[in-house]
């Protein structure tokens, strides 16, 4: 068991950032793209063993189809659909079972989502559940999926709370996006590296699990990376608010050096457009955990440059760029061809969820023959590693997947009709350096921090001096 | 046999029993015909019916339109969630035992303030109070979980006699819980029937129809309204208590004014001038919303159209419309 050291060790910032493996300019994956073509698209090398039924494999995909969340929800369903179409074009799962999808609108509210998951399993008889964006939804539907025995790959809703407390020993539920605490930490590292002189900090976060988590972990990490900062203003708008005027004036009157924001989706688009009118971006630095998490075209050319525009620490379509990671190049091309727009991290997550499932089913089939039982699929999913457009994706045995964290700075490039990332300033961080390792004590066991990650930072991170 | 002074009431109870018997029999046999999912939906429906039944004591019998009954439903649900979190025992009876006094006290307190006014002023007051409760649940993040809400695991039923922890625990729980809710539902219906047919209930109707006359008869109007509010809020609160273990989670959604609107909608849908109207309305609304959400992303539009049609075409609701139709058919035959 870890014990809090009585004296927190201290280091200087540059040395600390080096030990965290922070890379700028996106050189992290050079030389990694040696595999030619898209191996995801290749049909399974061997035909499936044993008798496989040709009944459709029914999936239920829940995401925001309406409201301010839809700028994340639409890409999610598009990524899912594209993967299903590609797999079906090869004959389906194990070459036999075509993927069929029914959808549900997450915007109906948390309680309605719980009912919907039950309906999908008990009435519509789905074989697998996937999707979910909001961190308010995932801890609600996760336990429902467990009690129904419903194989689930959540494509977001990445709150630490889900596997820390709501279902600490998941059997059926997996999650493919990076854990949420890494999001706040990634933004803090971006700030510490770029603007180490900031002292007065303002916060604006949506008033629910995600905003609370982002704020807490950003502050925890920043306290260690940039000593001597103080929080001068906090705003907690309700999720899916469209009027930010009162919050913006409050932030500006506090005269902070830096604004930390985790408002997302349509909320962020509304926020930045209103903040522009007040000249907020001229008065302070802005760091966001998830500004560019929306569908890329939802951001306008009017978006200011030089904002730390996070993508939920998961994926942005221009990285890894060029020919360095063919998997990404081909994914973005196919996605553009299919939908006439660029993918976001939800598209990639939803897309990879089906390929992860496909890979696990093929492995299980090699071992058992025939259509594998859920138990066999689950044991293959645990610990499965797969190449994804975003890089290497690893499903930890505790059902939480990881990939290296990434964030970047907004810039208006002539190539796109929207503000995107400055290719020279993309920050990547090896995920193991910013997340609690497998088996780290969960809240309520040996400590009572809000997350395992918070406890891990407090007990193991040194403090920067100077 | 000697004439019984309580004869009229017995007669009316017998009438209720006669009307309920076939429906009850059908409900008891239901789990043998349908799947777990449908049983679960009917359970949600019965709970909504209890809430609407309680609500209708105010609207249908006392003539007061409350736009804040979400507060009592939500308070019931949150009380259970707090009991689970702080006190621990996973027993449904314990939840009810703690929950009922809490919602009763809350209804008494809020009712005391609200019944000082009638008509729109009453409606606005109830709405305002429920919004205060909603804001508290939303903003006290560290206590209530904010918009994430609080989880409530499956409780044991009948003082721990029935426990549901096995691999098929959920399915077993739904069936058992269905009968549990059905039993409470029957008790509520009988209780409400007795209340509205008692002298107290008649007094409420007199107040509803002509306040001035009722006052001249010597009825203490405000007190009658207050007690009516108390019973109404408590019954809706009981629905909240029963709802939360089934749903597994409570969020501020059930405290928001739109949820009050759903209760009003249910009563209108069934017909608030009928005793059975809110019961039918609660169940039908549950199905309507579930399948509207499941089939179209324009479910809000669909519900809106239903509401507008209802008000224009069937102002007396489903039950009112059916009974009018029945009367006409009978007249046509004779």
Task: Chart the SSEs and their pairings.
The complex is a heterodimer of chains A (466) and B (334).
Chain A: E1 10-12, H1 13-19, E2 23-24, E3 57-63, H2 70-89, E4 99-105, H3 110-123, E5 128-131, H4 138-148, E6 151-154, H5 161-166, E7 173-175, H6 181-194, E8 200-204, H7 209-225, E9 230-235, H8 245-253, E10 258-261, H9 266-278, H10 280-283, E11 285-288, E12 308-309, H11 326-339, H12 345-368, H13 374-381, E13 385-388, E14 391-395, E15 401-402, E16 405-407, E17 410-411, E18 420-421, E19 427-429, H14 452-460, E20 463-465
Parallel strand pairs in A: 1-20, 3-4, 3-5, 5-6, 6-7, 8-9, 8-10, 10-11, 11-12
Antiparallel strand pairs in A: 2-19, 13-14, 14-15, 16-19, 17-18
Chain B: H1 7-33, H2 36-62, H3 70-87, H4 92-114, H5 119-139, H6 141-144, E1 150-151, H7 169-197, H8 199-209, H9 211-216, H10 221-247, E2 249-250, H11 257-270, H12 277-295, H13 299-313, H14 317-333
Antiparallel strand pairs in B: 1-2
What's the overall geometry of chain A? globular
What's the CATH class of the largest domain in chain A, please? Answer: Alpha Beta
Radius of gyration of chain A: 21 Å
Strand line-up in the sheet with most strands of chain A: 4-3-5-6-7
In the CATH scheme, the class of chain B would be: Mainly Alpha
DSSP, total strands of chain A: 20
Give a short account of the largest sheet of chain B. 2 strands, antiparallel
CATH-level-4 superfamily name of the largest domain in chain A: Response regulator
Order of helices and strands of chain B: HHHHHHEHHHHEHHHH
Largest interface, per-chain counts?
A-B, 33 and 30 residues
- Helices of chain B, by number, come to 14
For the largest beta-sheet of chain A, the strand count, sense and barrel status come to: 5 strands, parallel
Cα-based radius of gyration of chain B, to the nearest Å: 20 Å
Structural notes for this entry:
The complex is a heterodimer of chains A (466) and B (334). Helix content of chain A is 36%, strand content 16%. Chain A has 466 residues and is α/β, with parallel strands linked by helices. Chain A has 2 domains: 10-14 and 182-318 and 406-458, Rossmann fold; 57-180 and 322-402, Response regulator (Rossmann fold), CATH 3.40.50. In chain A, β3, α2 and β4 (99-105) form a beta-alpha-beta unit. Chain A contains 14 helices and 20 strands. Chain A has helices at 13-19, 70-89, 110-123, 138-148, 161-166, 181-194, 209-225, 245-253, 266-278, 280-283, 326-339, 345-368, 374-381, 452-460, and strands spanning 10-12, 23-24, 57-63, 99-105, 128-131, 151-154, 173-175, 200-204, 230-235, 258-261, 285-288, 308-309, 385-388, 391-395, 401-402, 405-407, 410-411, 420-421, 427-429, 463-465. The two termini of chain A are 31 Å apart. The relative contact order of chain A is 0.16. Chain B has a single domain (15-333), classed as ABC transporter involved in vitamin B12 uptake, BtuC (Orthogonal Bundle). Chain B contains 14 helices and 2 strands; from the N terminus they run ααααααβααααβαααα. In chain B, strands 1-2 form a two-stranded antiparallel ribbon. Mean pLDDT of chain B is 85; it is low at 1-9. The A-B interface holds A 65-66, 104-105, 108-112, 114-116, 118-119, 122-123, 135-136, 139-140, 143-144, 147-149, 161, 166, 207-209, 212, 238-239 and B 35-38, 40, 44, 138-139, 141, 146-149, 151, 154, 167, 169-170, 247-249, 251, 253-254, 289-290, 293-294, 297, 299.
């Amino acid at each position: 068991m870890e014990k809090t050291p009585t004296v927190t060790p201290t280091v200087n910032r540059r040395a600390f950032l080096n030990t965290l493996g922070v890379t700028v300019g996106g050189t992290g994956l050079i030389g990694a793209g040696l595999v030619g073509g898209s191996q995801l698209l290749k049909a399974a090398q061997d035909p499936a063993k044993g008798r496989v039924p040709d009944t459709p494999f029914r999936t239920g995909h829940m995401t925001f189809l309406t409201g301010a969340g839809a700028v994340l929800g639409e890409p999610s369903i598009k990524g899912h659909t594209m993967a299903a179409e590609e797999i079906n074009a090869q004959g389906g799962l194990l070459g036999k079972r075509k993927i069929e999808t029914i959808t549900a609108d997450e915007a109906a509210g948390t309680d309605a989502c719980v009912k919907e998951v039950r309906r999908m399993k008990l009435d519509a008889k789905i074989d697998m559940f996937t999707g979910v964006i909001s961190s308010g939804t995932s801890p609600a539907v996760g336990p429902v999926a467990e009690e129904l025995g419903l194989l689930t790959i959540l494509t977001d809703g990445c709150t630490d709370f889900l596997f820390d407390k709501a279902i600490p020993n998941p059997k059926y539920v997996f999650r493919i996006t990076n854990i949420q605490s890494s999001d706040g930490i990634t933004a803090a590292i971006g700030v510490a590296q770029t603007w180490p002189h900031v002292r007065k900090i303002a916060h604006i976060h949506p008033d629910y699990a995600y905003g609370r988590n982002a704020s807490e972990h950003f502050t925890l990490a920043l306290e260690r990376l940039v000593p001597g900062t103080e929080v001068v203003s906090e705003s907690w708008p309700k999720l899916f608010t469209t009027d930010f005027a009162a919050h913006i004036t409050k932030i500006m009157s506090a005269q902070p050096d830096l604004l930390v924001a985790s408002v997302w989706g349509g909320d962020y688009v509304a926020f930045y457009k209103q903040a522009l009118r007040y000249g907020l971006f001229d008065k302070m630095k802005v760091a966001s955990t998830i500004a560019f998490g929306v569908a890329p075209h939802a951001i306008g050319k009017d978006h200011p440059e030089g904002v730390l525009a996070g993508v939920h620490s998961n994926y942005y379509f221009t990285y890894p760029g060029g020919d360095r990671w063919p998997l990404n190049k081909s994914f973005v091309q196919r996605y553009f061809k299919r939908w006439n727009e660029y993918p976001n991290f939800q598209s990639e997550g939803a897309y990879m969820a089906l390929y992860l499932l496909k890979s696990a089913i093929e492995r299980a089939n090699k071992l058992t023959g025939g259509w594998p039982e859920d138990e066999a699929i689950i044991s293959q999913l645990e610990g499965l590693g797969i190449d994804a457009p975003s890089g290497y994706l690893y499903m930890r045995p505790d059902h939480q997947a990881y990939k290296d964290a990434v964030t970047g700075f907004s810039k208006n490039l002539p190539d796109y009709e929207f503000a995107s990332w400055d290719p020279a300033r993309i920050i990547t961080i090896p995920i193991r350096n910013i997340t609690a390792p497998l088996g780290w004590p969960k809240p309520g066991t040996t400590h009572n921090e809000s997350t395992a990650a918070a406890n891990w930072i407090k007990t193991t991170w040194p403090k920067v001096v100077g | 046999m000697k004439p019984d002074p309580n004869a009229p009431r017995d007669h009316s109870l017998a009438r209720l029993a006669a009307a309920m018997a076939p429906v009850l029999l059908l409900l008891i046999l239901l789990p043998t015909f349908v799947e777990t999912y449908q049983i679960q939906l009917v359970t949600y429906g019965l709970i909504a019916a209890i809430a609407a039944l309680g609500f209708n004591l105010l609207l249908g019998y006392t003539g007061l339109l409350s736009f804040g009954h979400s507060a009592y439903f939500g308070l019931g649900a949150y009380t259970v969630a707090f009991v689970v979190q702080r006190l621990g025992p996973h027993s449904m009876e314990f939840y009810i035992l703690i929950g009922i006094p809490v919602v009763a006290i809350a209804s008494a307190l809020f009712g005391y303030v609200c019944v000082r006014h009638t008509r729109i002023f009453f409606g606005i007051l109830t709405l305002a109070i429920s919004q205060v409760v909603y804001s508290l649940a939303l903003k006290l993040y560290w206590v209530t979980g904010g918009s994430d809400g609080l989880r409530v695991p499956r409780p044991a039923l009948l003082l721990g006699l029935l426990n549901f922890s096995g691999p098929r625990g959920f399915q077993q729980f739904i069936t058992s819980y269905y009968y549990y809710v059905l039993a409470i539902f029957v008790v509520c219906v009988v209780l409400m029937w007795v209340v509205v047919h008692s002298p107290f209930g008649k007094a409420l109707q007199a107040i509803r129809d002509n306040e001035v006359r009722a006052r001249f008869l010597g009825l203490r109007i405000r007190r009658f309204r207050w007690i009516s509010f108390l019973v109404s809020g408590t019954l809706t609160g009981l629905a909240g208590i029963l709802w939360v273990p089934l749903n597994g989670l409570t969020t501020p959604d059930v405290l928001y004014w739109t949820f009050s609107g759903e209760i009003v909608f249910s009563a209108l849908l069934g017909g608030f001038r009928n005793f059975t109207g809110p019961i039918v309305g609660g169940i039908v609304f549950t199905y309507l919303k579930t399948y509207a959400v499941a089939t179209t992303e324009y479910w809000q539009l669909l519900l809106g159209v239903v509401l507008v049609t209802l008000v224009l075409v069937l102002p007396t609701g489903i039950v009112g419309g059916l009974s009018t139709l029945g009367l006409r058919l009978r007249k046509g035959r004779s």
